[in-house]
Amino acid sequence: MLQILLMAAFVCHLSGCAEGPFWRAGQFNPWVRSQWAEEEKIADTLFTRKRRMENVVAQATNASIDVQEEAARALSDIIFRDKVLLMRLHAVKLLGRLNSPTSVETLAKASKDNDKDIRLAAVSAWKMVSPDSAVPQLQEIIGSDTDIDVRLAATEALGNFPGRSSVQALALSLNDRDPALQVRAAESLQRVTGEPLGRNIVAWQDYVGSNSVVAPNKANGQGSTSRTANQASDTSGDFR
Fold first, then answer.
1. Which residues contact 39 (CB under 8 A, 6 or more apart)?
2. Dihedral (C-alpha) 186, 189, 193, 198: value to the nearest 10 degrees?
3. What CATH code is carried by the domain that includes residue 87?
4. Is 80 in the same domain as 99?
5. How far apart are CA 235 and CA 240, in angstroms?
6. In total, how many domains does the chain have?
7. Are the beta carbons of 20 and 11 closer than 8 angstroms?
8. For residues 123 and 92, what is the distance between their CA atoms, to the nearest angstrom?
9. Are both 75 and 112 inside the same structural domain?
10. Could you tell me which of 56, 160, 185, 196 has the fewest CB atoms within 10 Å of its CB?
11. Which range has the worst mean pLDDT, 90-94, 99-103, 159-163, 231-235?
12. Could you tell me which residues come within 8 angstroms of residue 238 by beta carbon, excluding any fewer than 6 positions away?
């Protein structure tokens, strides 16, 4: 047994193996040590670049629209041109902190990226954007994206935006044939409306389809209420 272990250590030493039970043997191999050094440089470079991006966005957040536009253009360049996925993902997430036409436009493009992870990052960023821009985009993602994880994320994100437009958007997931989407829509609808219907899909479908929803009013502390069918006829334009 001892001979086998010694032989394994010797082979690992010669081959430059840097992982497994004898990974420390790599420290004696010049090639392995140089690889470690290169990897450390890459990690340090990524960290430095991410920190620089964060600083630029932090400074732009409370600055003029021109400064925010400049920061958004810089992030857009990274998202669509950088070869490092981690950098692209970080840039997408940072876009949500800016409030400029370019940031919204770039997020919309990222929401249609070929890479699923980029689209998921865009959904996360939409949570920080104003409802007027975010809700229509999240609704479009639910209706057009082919990946269930992205659609689930968009359905969950809509729960951050109380209002009738979010209820309309969530109807797409609520009426979908996928049970996971229906449940996620029910959870978001409860957050959006304050109605205690839990995961009762049929109850939520009746609630949304009856045109009997009043959007929550956070300003005066009033929540949403349900009306009877007769009362609903007076407000049939709520969802139109």
1. none
2. 20
3. 1.25.10
4. yes
5. 10
6. 2
7. no
8. 9
9. yes
10. 196
11. 231-235
12. 164, 211, 212, 213, 214
